[in-house]
Design a protein that fits this description.
- The protein is of the alpha+beta class and about 280 residues long.
- It has 2 domains: about 160 residues, no CATH class; about 55 residues.
- The protein has 8 helices and 9 strands.
- Helix 3 packs antiparallel against helix 4, helix 3 packs parallel to helix 5 and helix 7 crosses helix 8.
- The longest helix is centred in the middle third of the chain and has 27 residues.
- The radius of gyration is 24 Å and the shape is elongated.
Length: about 280
């Protein structure tokens, strides 16, 4: 399913973790996965799949979710994330504000997953019965990344055709190292079949201050100076720049609303418990 404006308007997009990673050229490799590593990964997944619910006192069946408390440093890390996220969220409006409200709950879920993986991998630094600062900070880091990706994805929905073309060209130049000559641009994209086409497109980026022309005179040596278009310092050179042609890759998990209680995180979702999403 391609994510579009209609999914932003009906609230579906706010319930998704969205990302637009860059397209990368395939590179041949002879590398293989180490067998011991594969066994370790299989062991971790086997342990995660074997997680069980707690026995319900009334039915004597394993149906109750298991609550994991935060350690003292884990709670401090959660409060730090909660406050920083709230400060960032207060300046947002509309659909992006809705997305960031859901990301708060995702931080807790991702921290829980990190904790359980650490336990399954026999991490000697983790207490199985408490979620510590390392797991909370890992979840918070992923949420900050997804927040930045949400900004990038949502921005594309309101683009004009001209803005879209500029963004795609900027992303192409980013993948080429942030600088390009007219000839190199022609070789990199069939869209720019002539030098006039390529130069006009680059001049358009200069006009909106995305970059500028620079001359390389080979250190004062012989030969004609080479003119290159260089992305401006303020241009987005994030290595996770959006794909230029494809739809965003979306990963969906159930969302949870951030509550007032910051002492416990429910692992029922990780162990397969059913229930409302809180939306």
């Amino acid at each position: 399913m391609g994510l579009g404006v209609e999914h932003v308007e009906n609230g579906l997009a706010a319930r998704l973790l969205v990302a637009m990673p860059p397209r990368r050229a395939k590179v041949w490799t002879e590398a293989t996965v180490d067998r011991d590593l594969q066994k370790q990964v299989d062991r971790v997944f086997g342990r995660l799949l074997a997680l069980e619910f707690r026995v319900d006192d009334d039915t004597d069946e394993k149906t109750d979710p298991v609550d994991l408390p935060l350690s003292s440093d884990g709670k401090r890390a959660w409060i730090d994330f909660y406050n920083r996220h709230a400060r960032e969220q207060k300046d947002l409006t509309g659909e992006l504000a809705a997305a960031f409200s859901k990301l708060e709950g995702y931080a807790a879920r991702l921290a829980l997953i990190v904790h359980l993986v650490r336990v399954a991998a026999d991490d000697s630094t983790v207490n199985p019965d408490e979620i510590d600062a390392s797991s909370i900070e890992a979840g918070a880091t992923m949420v900050r990344w997804f927040g930045n990706e949400s900004r990038r994805v949502y921005q594309t929905f309101g683009e004009s055709e001209q803005s879209r073309e500029r963004r795609r060209l900027e992303e192409l130049i980013q993948r080429m190292g942030g600088a390009v000559t007219v000839r190199a641009l022609m070789r990199s994209s069939q869209k720019y079949r002539t030098a006039d086409d390529a130069e006009a497109a680059l001049n358009d980026l200069v006009k909106v201050a995305i970059g500028d022309w620079q001359y390389d005179d080979h250190g004062g040596g012989r030969g004609r100076p080479v003119r290159r278009f260089i992305l401006a310092d303020g241009a987005d050179t994030d290595t996770n720049a959006p794909k230029s042609e494809e739809d965003p890759i979306c990963v969906s998990v159930n969302t949870v609303d951030g509550g007032e209680n910051t002492d416990r995180i429910d692992n029922s979702q990780s162990t397969g418990a059913s229930g409302g999403s809180g939306d």
